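Recall the central idea of this unit: under ordinary conditions, the amino acid sequence of a chain determines the structure it adopts. In this exercise we apply that idea directly, starting from the sequence alone.
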Amino acid sequence: MPVEIPADFLTIATRGPEWADWLDRLPRLTRDLLTEWDLRADGEPAYGNCALVVRVRTPDGAAAVLKVQFPHWEAGTEHLALRVWDGNGAIRLLRADPRRFAMLLERAQPAGQTQTQDLTSVEEIEASEIIASAYKRLHVPAGPQFKLLSEQAARWSRELLALPASAPVPRRYVEQAAALARDFATDPACDGTLIHTDLHYFNVLAAEREPWLVIDPKPLSGDPHYEVAPLLWNRWEELAAARDLRFALRRRFYAIIDTAGLDEDRARDWIIVRQLVNILGSVRDAAPDETLPDDWLTRNIAVTKAIQD
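Accordingly, the structure predicted from this sequence is:
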C-alpha cells in the first residue's frame, strides 16, 4: 500500500530542484523500504523540516517508526550517533540504510497514548533541567566518523567577518562572535565529545522504556557547552512574554548550566556564536529582494544582548 505524502510536506519542493527531485522519488523510496524491511504502515505519516516519518509495525508486531530524510550532511551520521548511544537516553536505532538516508527507530510513545508528547508539555525550567540532565548520558567520547566542531567554528569565523556592513545586526556582535569562533577553532577542548547540537524541547519525547527519550541528533565531535543555545531560542514566546526578558532568559540559562555542571563563561560564549550563526544563515539564504523576518532577527539579537549585559 503506497504511503501518501502529506500535502504540507510537499511545499518543501520550493527549496530547489534537488528537493523537488527527492520528493518525486520519495513515494517509491518509502514503498521500497516498507517492502524490503517487511514493515506495515500503522497510521498517517508525519514530517519534520526535512524528513518523512511513517509509523509502522515490524514483522513481530512491535511499534516502530520509519524515518526517511532528505540527503544532507547533518543527517549523514545521525544513525552513527544513535548506534553509539544504543538507547541510553536516546531513541533506539533498529536498522539503518545510510545510502538512502533511512532509519527504522523504536517508537517513543507511552503505553495507552496514541499521540506523541514532547517537552513543550512540561514547565520550561523543569523541561530545561530534564534536557540538561540528559547531557551527561549523551556526551560520550566521539569517534573519528563525526565531523569536528572546530572546523565549523573556523568556517563561521570567516563567514561572519564577510557579512556586509548592511546586514541587519549590530556589527559589534558580528565581530565578537567571529573572534570567539576563531578562538574556539584552535581550542583543543572544542572537539572530542559526541554532541547532539539540536537538543531542545521538541526533540525529547515521552516514552515507555524511559520517561523521556532524545531524538533527531545532528551530531558533531565537539564541546558540551555548544548544546545550550537551542534551549534559549526555542520556547521563545514564554521568554518574550515575561515582564523582564533578561531575567527570564538568564533564569533558564542558569538552570541549564547548574544542572549540567557546565562552565558559565564558555556556555555564554558559544551562545553568542550560535545566535550570530543563525543570523548569518538567514542572511546568506535570503533572496536578494527578500525581507528577513523581524521576529527571528529580534530573537537572536535579544538573546545575544541579554546573555551578556
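The chain is about 45% helix and 15% strand.
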